[in-house]
Amino acid sequence: MPVEETETKVILTHPADESTSLTILKHGATVISWKYKGQEKLWLSDAAKLDGSKPVRGGIPLVFPIFGKSKDEKHPAFKLPQHGFARNSPWELLGQTTENPLTVQLGLGPEQVDPELYKLWDDGKNDFTLILSVTLGDDYLTTGIEVENTGSNDFEFNWLFHTYLRIPDVTDVVVNNFTDAKCYDQLIGENYFEKSPMISFTEEFDRIYKEIDSKVIFQVVEFGKVLTTVERDNLPDAVVWNPWIKKSEGMADFEPKDGYLKMLCIEPGHVNSFVHLKAGEKWNGKQTLRNGGEIKVQTNIY
Ligand SMILES: O=P(O)(O)OC[C@H]1O[C@H](O)[C@H](O)[C@@H](O)[C@@H]1O
C-alpha cells in the first residue's frame, strides 16, 4: 500500500522502492521522517513529543500565521504563541491526489484549532482553509501550502516550513548561495548583507535571509559533495538556525543534547513581511528537498 493511514500518522511508501518513504504526523501535519533509499534525511529529536501535547521538535513543523513572536502590540497576531498554531493543531487527511508522483493532502480550518488558541488571532475573526500537499518523489520531497481566505475580511500572515535537515556533522558542512543576500541576525539584532561565499557553523546561528529570488537554490555541501538541495517557490525568505550547545540544553524536548551536531534548520518562508490575503483569495508557497545534486553557485546581486 503506497499510502497508509493510522490514527495518528500517514505513511507514504514509494511504489517502485520501499526503502524510500515518508511519515506525516497528523498533529501539525508535521513530516517527521523522509527516508531516501533507506537513509533518513530529516532530524527528529529523541525527546520530541508526538502525542499532540507540543509542537514537534524536528521534521518539518509548519509555521502559521506568525513567525516567532509579534513585538507589535497592535498587530492581530500579537497574542499568539511563538510560530502560531498550525504546528500545534490536529490536521485531517484529505486523501491521495496523485499516484505518480505519490501525493497526499492534509487540511486545517479554524474548527480544528483549539478555540482558546484560535481566539488569540484577531479575536477569532479570520476564516481560512490551509491545504498542505506532500509529494514523495524518486529523490525528492515537496511540501506545498495553499492558504485560502474563506471569510469576509482580509487578513495577513507569515508562512514558514521549519525544516530540520539531518546531517552527519554540522561542523563539516557549508551552505551555499546566501552570498550578498540581505540578512537579519536574530542573535545580535542587526541587519547586514551576508558576505561569506559559503556559510559554515561553529557556534549558535539564527539568521533570517530576506527576499531571495526563487531561482536561487540552497545546498548543504559536505567535503565538496551535495547532501541536500533546497528549492523554493514563492517563499522569498529563509531562516537558517542551529541552536548549538547552550540553547539545546535549555530545550527539554531536544535530545540527545549533542544532537545539534546532527541537524541544521533551513527554513523557507514568507516572514520578512506579511502576506496580505483578501477575502476569497488564495496564496501558495512550496519547498522541495532533493537528495544530492550538482553544486551550483548563484549570486544574489541583480
Ligand atoms: O523553539 P521553537 O519555538 O520551535 O523555535 C525554534 C527556532 O525557530 C526559528 O528557527 C527561530 O529563528 C529561532 O529563533 C527559534 O529558536
UniProtKB/TrEMBL annotation:
Kindly indicate whether the keyword Isomerase belongs to this entry.
yes
Q: What is its EC number?
A: 5.1.3.15
Positions that bind substrate: R57, Q82, R87
Example GO CC term: the record gives: cytoplasm
- What superkingdom heads the lineage? Eukaryota
Which PANTHER family is this protein grouped with?
A: APOSPORY-ASSOCIATED PROTEIN C-RELATED (PTHR11122), GLUCOSE-6-PHOSPHATE 1-EPIMERASE (PTHR11122:SF13)
* Name of the molecule in the record: Glucose-6-phosphate 1-epimerase
What organism does this protein naturally occur in?
Answer: Pichia sorbitophila (strain ATCC MYA-4447 / BCRC 22081 / CBS 7064 / NBRC 10061 / NRRL Y-12695)
Encoding gene per record: Piso0_005564
